[in-house]
């Protein structure tokens, strides 16, 4: 029986199985992940006590909360730059077209269809009304007719509707379609900037690292058109 040592454990874990015969891509990712995780443990001399703190942290990340009904795993990958890096890798051969951006954790499939010119949500007393018009074109500037444009953003207070019970369903979420000129337009409010909730696992780590938790105000888009790559 072979004995696993400090020098052999990484290869032992990677090669325990069919070495990618049944799923080469999964094995490629798995082998690299194990290699880098083990290297990280060695580099920081991770103690068993610290590992346990890490396990509890990951468990907390997966718990749903009012602010993140699907848990905070997506948020944490955003805060670690992992989401952005994946987008940059995927978008690296993009020349001259609008660059991709992270989807964020609060895209919800099944957005309600809205008509050009519609008001997207409830205007609060302190909100600043905003009119938005966009033209969707292909890489050569030719307008794309009938492109699907999903739009979502927080209200003027900085809350997406799923984060507060008092907000109406689909507040400032909507799906539009470009007209014969490739245009979409809608009425909405200037979204509030918002902080990542510091009550959760992600917020507490940001605080301990001395990182601020605010995001500049922004509007999310996801655009799909026939025969074209989707754009977020
Ligand atoms: Fe956002």
Explain what you see:
This protein folds into two domains: 9-59, no CATH class; 67-224, Aromatic compound dioxygenase (Protocatechuate 3,4-Dioxygenase, subunit A, Sandwich). It contains six helices and seven strands, in the order αααααβββββαββ. By secondary structure, it is an alpha+beta fold. The mean pLDDT is 93. Helices cover 28% and strands 14% of the residues. It has helices spanning 9-14, 24-44, 48-62, 73-79, 82-90, 201-208; strands at residues 129-135, 148-152, 173-177, 183-189, 194-195, 214-215, 220-224. The longest helix is centred in the first third of the chain and has 21 residues, at 24-44. It has a three-stranded antiparallel beta sheet with strand order 3-2-7, with no helix packed on it. Strands 1-4 form a two-stranded antiparallel sheet. Strands 5-6 form a two-stranded antiparallel sheet. It binds fe (ii) ion. Fe (ii) ion (FE2) binds at residues 104, 218, 220.
List the helices and strands and how they pair.
Layout: H1 9-14, H2 24-44, H3 48-62, H4 73-79, H5 82-90, E1 129-135, E2 148-152, E3 173-177, E4 183-189, E5 194-195, H6 201-208, E6 214-215, E7 220-224
Antiparallel strand pairs: 1-4, 2-3, 2-7, 5-6
The structure holds fe (ii) ion (FE2).
What brief labels describe this structure?
232 residues; two-stranded antiparallel ribbon; Protocatechuate 3,4-Dioxygenase, subunit A; single chain; alpha+beta; 14% strand; 3-stranded antiparallel sheet; binds fe (ii) ion; 7 strands
Kindly give the count of domains. Answer: 2
**What share of residues is helical?**
25-40%
Average of per-residue pLDDT values = 93
Find the structural class using helix and strand composition. alpha+beta
Could you name the CATH topology of the largest domain? Protocatechuate 3,4-Dioxygenase, subunit A
CATH class group of the largest domain: Mainly Beta
Number of helices: 6
End-to-end C-alpha gap: 52 Å
Hetero compounds: fe (ii) ion
Tally the beta strands. Answer: 7
Largest sheet descriptor: 3 strands, antiparallel
Poorly predicted regions:
none
CATH homology superfamily of the largest domain: Aromatic compound dioxygenase
């Amino acid at each position: 029986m072979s004995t696993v040592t400090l020098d052999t454990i990484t290869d032992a874990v990677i090669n325990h199985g069919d070495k990618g015969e049944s799923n080469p891509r999964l094995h490629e990712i798995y082998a690299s992940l194990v290699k880098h995780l083990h290297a990280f443990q060695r580099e920081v001399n991770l103690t068993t006590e610290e590992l346990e703190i890490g396990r509890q942290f990951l468990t907390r990340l997966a718990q749903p909360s009012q602010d993140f009904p699907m848990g905070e795993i997506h948020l944490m990958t955003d805060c670690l730059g992992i989401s952005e890096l994946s987008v940059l890798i995927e978008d690296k051969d993009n020349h001259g077209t609008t660059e991709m951006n992270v989807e964020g954790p609060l895209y919800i499939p099944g957005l309600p269809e809205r008509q050009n010119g519609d008001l997207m949500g409830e205007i609060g007393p302190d909100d600043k009304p905003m009119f938005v018009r966009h033209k969707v074109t292909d890489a050569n500037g030719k307008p794309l007719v009938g492109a699907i444009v999903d739009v979502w953003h927080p209200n003027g207070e900085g809350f997406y509707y799923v984060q507060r019970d008092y907000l109406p369903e689909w507040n400032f979420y909507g799906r539009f379609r470009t007209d014969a000129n490739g245009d979409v337009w809608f009425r909405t409010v200037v979204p509030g900037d918002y902080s990542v909730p510091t009550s959760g696992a992600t917020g507490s780590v940001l605080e301990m690292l001395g990182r601020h938790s605010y995001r500049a105000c922004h509007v999310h888009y996801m655009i799909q058109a026939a025969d074209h790559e989707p754009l977020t």
